[in-house]
Amino acid sequence: VQLQASGGGSVQAGGSLRLSCVASGHPLSSYGMGWFRQAPGKEREFVATIAWSGTMKNYDDSVKGRFTISRDNADNTVYLHMNRLKPEDTAVYYCAASERSPYGTTHRPNYDYWGQGTLVTVSS
To answer: Helix, strand or coil for residue 20?
Structure first.
C-alpha cells in the first residue's frame, strides 16, 4: 500500500484546512486508518483514527471538537478536516494504514504503512 498525503499549507489561527490521503496498490476498505503529526523537535503523536467502515472514530483530546476524520472507501481516500486551527497545530501530518487494527488504533507501532507527510503551518 502506498499512501500520498496532501492538503497542507499555511493558514492563520482560526482557519481551516482539509488534508487528504490517497491510497494505491491495495483497497483501503479493510484497513484502520490514522492521522499523526510531528512538530519540530517533538515525537510523532496520534491525532485521529477511523475504523475500516467509518463507524468508529477516536481523537486525541487536543483536537476533539475541532478536527474530523472521514473516509471514502470507493475513492480509497481518508480525510482530516481541521477547523479552528491553532499555532500549536503546526506540524507535519502523516496518514497511516493498519492491517492488524481494522477498527483503528491510537498506537503508532500498530500501523503498517505511512504516507510521506504534509506540512501544516498555523500563524497567530
So the answer is: strand
